[in-house]
Amino acid sequence: MTLATNPLISVTPGLMIWTIVCFLIALWVLKRYAFGPIQKLIEERRDSIRSALESADDARDEARQLLEEHRKLIAEARGEAEEILAEARKTRESMEQRMREETEAERQRRLEETRREIAAETARALEQIRSEVADLTLEAASRVVGRALDPERDRVLIEDAIQSLDFSRLEEAV
User: Fold this and answer.
1) Residue 57 pLDDT more than 70?
2) Residue 138 CB coordination number (10 Å)
3) N or C end of the chain: smaller count of CB under 10 Å?
4) DSSP label of 147
């Protein structure tokens, strides 16, 4: 078989013209009904991808902005929390100081009250001792003298004598 004898390779002018005409008709039909809509779909897809990319960029920028706002809010919240804690510490310290002062004032008041009670009891005890000493002295004097003494008349003398005695040693011992 030779090259010229193969009908697929041989140049036939009539077949060639019809092939070109069929090709041009097919090209025109494809261009009119296929390439336009395909090109339109490609453009629409390109536009939708472009708008999706722009939306993604906008969303990323918005997310960054929200993240920054969130960080600022967290920093503000931390600052406020620290301020609240500092205020609570100050309040606690002032309350502790006030409680210490009130406790000390109560202790001083009770101590003073106890001192007054001790002084009053000491004075009552000394007065009772004086009275008993006067009675005992009157009784002893009546036994020494051998006659009954008048308690009213002699009591004044005995009380004057007792007043001249020094009972300060008894007060100091208490």
Assistant:
1) yes
2) 18
3) N
4) S
Q: pLDDT band at residue 1, thresholds of 50, 70 and 90? A: very low
Of 128, 132, 140, 130, which Cα lies nearest the Cα of 160? Answer: 130
Instruction: Give the whole-angstrom CA distance, residue 28 versus residue 35.
Output: 10
- For residues 133 and 67, the model is more confident at 67
More confident residue, 12 or 30: 30
> Count of CB atoms within 10 A of residue 158's CB?
19
Distant-in-sequence, close-in-space partners of 138: CB < 8 Å, separation ≥ 6: 149, 151, 154, 155, 158
CA torsion, ordered 124, 156, 134, 170, to nearest 10 deg: 50
Which residues have CB under 8 Å from 170's CB, separation 6+? 126, 129
Q: How far apart are CA 126 and CA 171, in angstroms?
A: 8
